[in-house]
């Protein structure tokens, strides 16, 4: 089984200046992965003919497929077509089909075809025109020495339409592609290095055509198992068997698979157990309620929130004792408990969860440094608490604390 590799080159000084974000290469990578093409490298280069030629030449020395986006417009700074014409020694000539396409577009808008736009119909002799249904610049397909270079407009919606309708089907016919399958296991509450130690023996025993990648995030790690084969059905069976062998080792940290987010997993658990929840937030400032309500259908189980940022709101809306605040402070286990109890009773829900802490950058002390967060859950006649120490900036502390709170809910639901 021979793998097919590709490079993606995006052209434009505006990308290098940081004026626009290159979303094309990300999207192209996803489409190629779906059909079994592995992207080896993607990079952005300047609008200069020499640099374009050098980039294409370097990529063709390493991969079978090169995708180029950008620089196909009608203005003087659009140099891709001429650069590729020179590189492949294919002089530009009028392509009648391309001319008809351009004329049709201008006729549709009731405008005369200008000479500068007529130049769009000149393509390198020997290249294959790729119709652009959404714009005036056609794409180009170069098939040279069993390798392919594809040049497309940089405008995302033009490029995507061209890829979907013409280029991807053409690639599938042109190359014998392997099957590539990804399986993602989503974990929470364990760091990357600790997780790697837990599953080291399993990972070491994987066959050569299966590979594991660790994708860490905020207190979460995604495990991506990738398999390559010529037989999809057998590969699916083999990968599922490997995952079944792995899960008993890390089940306590696994909350889902694929694209499932932790807030989605919590929503499913709440619906399964027919439970309701409300939030009392101080340091997270509503971010926890935002994550819970970002799930479609969350109104089935989520009732509401009190953002008790000021101590007076903790007292008035949640019933936190003034003595508790005076003796222990807002950032304390005792205050978190009373906040959780208060929101559960106020909203008349099954579960109340609270967060109170010091997000920073100011407000920390030696006893309670920035990033100190207490959270509590009131559920089933019991109060559970958890203290964490967030490690970063104000925004990172808010995000990290929210993820930890979501995992706290998950653990509580799994124990119920």
UniProtKB/TrEMBL annotation:
Protein name stated in the entry: CinA-like protein
Domain of life of the native organism: Bacteria
SMART domains: MoCF_biosynth
A Pfam family that the UniProt record links to this protein: MoCF_biosynth
Residue ranges of domain MoaB/Mog in the record: 7-174
Family annotation (InterPro entries): CinA (IPR050101), CinA-like_C (IPR036653), CinA_C (IPR008136), CinA_KH (IPR041424), Competence-induced_CinA (IPR008135), MoaB/Mog-like_dom_sf (IPR036425), MoaB/Mog_dom (IPR001453)
Species for this entry: Reichenbachiella agarivorans
HAMAP family: CinA_B
Family as reported in the entry's similarity comment: Belongs to the CinA family.
SUPFAM superfamilies: CinA-like (SSF142433), Molybdenum cofactor biosynthesis proteins (SSF53218)
């Amino acid at each position: 089984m021979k793998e097919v590799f590709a490079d993606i080159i995006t052209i434009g000084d505006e990308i290098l200046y940081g004026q626009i974000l290159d979303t094309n290469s990300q999207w192209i990578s996803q489409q190629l992965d779906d059909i079994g093409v592995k992207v080896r490298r993607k990079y952005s280069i300047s609008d200069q003919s020499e640099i374009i030629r050098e980039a294409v030449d370097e990529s063709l020395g390493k991969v079978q497929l090169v995708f180029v986006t950008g620089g196909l417009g009608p203005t003087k700074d659009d140099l891709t077509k001429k650069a590729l014409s020179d590189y492949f020694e294919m002089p530009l000539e009028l392509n009648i089909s391309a001319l008809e396409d351009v004329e049709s577009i201008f006729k549709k808008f009731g405008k005369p075809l200008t000479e500068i736009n007529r130049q769009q119909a000149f393509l390198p002799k020997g290249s294959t025109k790729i119709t652009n249904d959404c714009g005036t610049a056609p794409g180009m397909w170069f098939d040279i020495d069993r390798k392919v270079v594809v040049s497309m407009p940089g405008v995302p919606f033009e490029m995507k339409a061209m890829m979907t309708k013409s280029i991807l089907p053409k690639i599938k016919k042109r190359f014998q592609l392997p099957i590539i399958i990804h399986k993602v296991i989503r974990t929470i509450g364990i760091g990357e290095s600790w997780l790697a130690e837990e599953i080291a023996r399993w990972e070491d025993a994987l066959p050569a055509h299966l590979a594991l990648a660790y994708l860490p995030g905020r207190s979460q790690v995604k495990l991506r198992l990738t398999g390559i084969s010529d037989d999809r059905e057998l590969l699916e069976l083999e990968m599922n068997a490997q995952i079944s062998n792995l899960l008993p080792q890390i089940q306590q940290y696994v909350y889902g698979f694929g694209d499932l987010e932790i807030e989605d997993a919590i929503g499913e658990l709440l619906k399964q157990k027919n439970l309701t929840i409300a939030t009392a937030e101080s340091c997270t400032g509503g971010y926890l309620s935002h994550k819970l309500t970002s799930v479609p259908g969350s109104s089935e189980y989520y009732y509401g929130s009190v953002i008790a940022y000021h101590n007076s709101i903790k007292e008035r809306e949640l019933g936190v004792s003034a003595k508790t605040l005076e003796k222990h402070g807002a950032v304390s286990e005792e205050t978190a408990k009373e906040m959780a109890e208060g929101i559960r009773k106020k909203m008349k829900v099954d579960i109340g969860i609270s967060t109170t802490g010091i997000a920073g950058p100011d407000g920390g002390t030696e006893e309670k440094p920035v990033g100190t967060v207490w959270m509590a859950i009131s559920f089933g006649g019991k109060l559970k608490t958890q203290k964490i120490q967030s490690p970063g900036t104000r925004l990172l502390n808010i995000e990290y604390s929210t993820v930890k709170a979501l995992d706290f809910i998950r653990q509580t639901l799994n124990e119920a």
